[in-house]
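Morning!

This is the sequence you dropped in the shared folder:
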Amino acid sequence: MTLKIIISEDDKRWDQFVENHPKGSIYHHSAWKSVLQSTFGFIPFYVAEVNPCNGRFEGILPCMRVKSRLTGTRLVSLPFTSYCAQLFPETLVDDIVEMALQNYPDTDYLELKFYDVLENESKILQRQSTYNTHVLHLTASANEIFKSFHNTSVCQRIKRGAKYNLKLRTADNEKDLKLFYDLHTKTRKKHGLPPHPYLFFQNMWKILMPHKFLLIPLLEYQGKIIAGAIVLKFKNTFHFEYSAFDLDYADISPNHSMIWETIKIAIDEGAKIFDFGRTASANKSLMDFKKRWATEEHNLQYYYYPEAKRINTEEGVIKYLLTKVNSLLPPYLLRLEGEVIYPHLG
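The structure's back. Tokens below.
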């Protein structure tokens, strides 16, 4: 077998491999690479294990080079991605790491965001497990799935929302996308966090929507959007990535209604998995929230070489200071901060 650098959007073998592999996801697809590259300017380093006899791909690893004065020069698989399951033989892990470092010798560290633990541990990578994802299996009917949710924390809240005639629709133009982004900005400000750059979501719209890889549910109440989300769709999985809701309407639980209506869309479209997205293990309240949806908790496995040096934005002094300052900033400055800071954080 031969390891080769691939231009994934020009080589049809890449996406064909992703679509046919049982663990292939939206994050492995060349469309996601295009979103990251066009938004943040990251340099792709996509490697395939190629059979020299027939030219078939036997394994792939998508990676991006991030150059930052704050977080160092690093190779990540992949930035702004919860996890990127390993789609190559474990025996090649160290070979791929060495190949990557030979191509980019100025790399401070390499980060691989795997879904599972490597059965045969790498000799050079260090493993950390500080994030989780929560997965709801859609193998039963909608009624049975609803009954599996926590009664008071989820079911009753959804029923409460139904009394207010909340309506869900999906975005069908960029004006709707901007409505979601306004809500995203407002929600992030409430939590003392900068919103992601609008260009990130705009590129999702332009690149993913034509493939039908994107869904933006919007929840309306009395003609006003009070909740919305970015959902990535691929094969049999819905990834519930970015959600926002108007805290002024928290008493009618718009977030619960929006999630449930989106789950029903996933069921109707034949999806088998609804992924609630990544959560830091230290974020107990969010972990508990996702557990109440009858989800299966899964420890994500991140591997580093030689060690993780990136700024920790999940806890500690940095997050405390950012939260305090951001809660006071006007929306336009908060958005500007997001445009400046997120290219360093992926």
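Headline: The chain has two domains: 2-132+302-310, 140-271.

More detail when I'm at my desk.
O.
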